[in-house]
Write a structure and sequence with these properties.
heterodimer; A: 170 residues; alpha/beta; Glutaredoxin; two-stranded antiparallel sheet; globular; B: 73 residues; mainly alpha; elongated
């Protein structure tokens, strides 16, 4: 009996040691306040975007699907803003060497704010499990959608979700 | 109960050891994603070998998955 108890305690300790609390849909988005990637300014915080729909995207230059998503989300962001929808993309670069992210943006510039988090504190706070992972956050700061990975067709789905949210919030 | 108390330091130690066995996090895979970290350095050679294997054996797959070690889908 004691052995069974000990085994359970051991397994529980092992399970606890690998447990990562991931940010879920319906939860309030954890705070983010980071410096800008390119202009070494900031910090810019997620809280500044309260009242807008925010697409928070964790990306790295070594992650091919992340690089696919950047121009697509830039186009969606510009189109939705032209339509008068209060929407913004906030990208967080997690390259351990920020110069890698800067090099990519020099080749493929984007119009939205890109922050730098080489130590990975913000993806850790969100419990990011794969790259890229993005969070669609409503104007009250609540996570509405968690999106892992990215393929070209995902852009349209995300856009539809934003339009649906904008319809609800306007 | 005595046995439990005797083993308690061991359990605590095991817990501490386990807590240091963290997997590489998704955002820490930059080095793993480098081309030189791939098991097959030359994708073209791998493709050709797979094709030859398929032709000879009439079966395919089971070698590896697409992409590097970055865990991106």
């Amino acid at each position: 009996m004691d052995n069974i108890k000990l085994t359970f305690i051991f397994l529980a300790l092992m399970a606890m040691s690998s447990m990562v609390q991931a940010a879920q849909e319906g939860e309030i988005a954890p705070a983010v306040a980071l410096p800008l990637l390119q202009d070494s300014g900031g910090p810019v915080s997620l809280a500044e975007y309260e009242g807008q729909i925010v697409y928070l995207d964790f990306w790295a230059s070594w992650c091919p699907p992340c690089l696919v998503s950047m121009p697509i989300m830039n186009e969606i962001r510009n189109r939705l803003q032209d339509e008068g929808i209060a929407f913004e993309v906030l990208a967080v670069n997690v390259d351990s060497d920020p110069r890698d992210g800067i090099d990519f943006l020099l080749d493929s510039p984007v119009d939205f704010v890109v922050l730098s988090d080489p130590k990975g504190t913000s993806p850790a706070a969100y419990g990011v499990r794969g790259m890229p992972t993005s969070y669609l956050i409503d104007p009250e700061g609540k996570i509405v959608m968690v999106h892992e990975g990215f393929k070209r067709s995902d852009g349209e789905k995300i856009k539809q979700q934003i339009l649906e949210m904008a319809g609800n919030t306007q | 109960m005595k046995k439990f108390l005797a083993l308690l330091p061991l359990i605590i130690l095991a817990g501490l050891v386990c807590s240091s066995c963290q997997p590489v996090q998704a955002w820490e895979r930059g080095t793993l994603a480098k081309p030189e970290m791939a098991i097959d350095a030359d994708p073209m050679e791998t493709t050709l070998n797979s094709h030859i294997f398929f032709s000879k054996e009439a079966s395919n797959g089971g070698h590896n998955a697409a992409g590097g070690g970055c865990g991106c889908n």
